């Protein structure tokens, strides 16, 4: 963890810049889009700092990087969501969750975790359903299914009972849960009722989630270093 910390300093600084400037969403601009996406750009740099060869040879890391790229595009679209680009942002983040799920993998399967996430996802959609109309009735259902699946794969990797977990697997799990909290807050605020301090809650959990998921990409490198030391 100590070795990765210095590489995350730009991300923390960019996040502070976002919250300090706190640009109004009522007047979207390319500058506000840049400030919002800057922390995610820093996470690109964080992963690229581990080397192109590392990303090319490890599919999970390259897929998380690809997910971060689609996330940044989604963030930019959401700056102009009131101008009709909310669905575009939704699509970009749906692709992000597919990439993250692929990075986390399908082993171990852990059907109990899958059942739990299925219940949670279904409950969230059942609550939102009466507030949805038009294409959002179906789009939100698909999106919740995708982020729920991503959460399942992150939880399944933990293997707490078998004592096989690592700090990076824990990072992926917490990151996925925070991503779900962030997106649920967006849904509640947009479709149901105003959520107090919604923007702060959404962005704080979102940036934390992306950082933790990016951290989970360095696991394969840690395992290689451990084998070399052994």
UniProtKB/TrEMBL annotation:
Catalysed reactions listed for this entry: a 1-O-(1Z-alkenyl)-sn-glycero-3-phosphoethanolamine + H2O = a 2,3-saturated aldehyde + sn-glycero-3-phosphoethanolamine; a 1-O-(1Z-alkenyl)-sn-glycero-3-phosphocholine + H2O = a 2,3-saturated aldehyde + sn-glycerol 3-phosphocholine
Gene Ontology annotations for the cellular component aspect, listed alphabetically: membrane
Predominant location: membrane
Keyword check for Transmembrane: yes
Membrane topology recorded in Swiss-Prot or TrEMBL: Multi-pass membrane protein
Name of one Pfam family that matches: YhhN
Enzyme class: hydrolase
Protein name: lysoplasmalogenase
Protein source organism: Caloenas nicobarica
Source species taxonomy: Eukaryota, Metazoa, Chordata, Craniata, Vertebrata
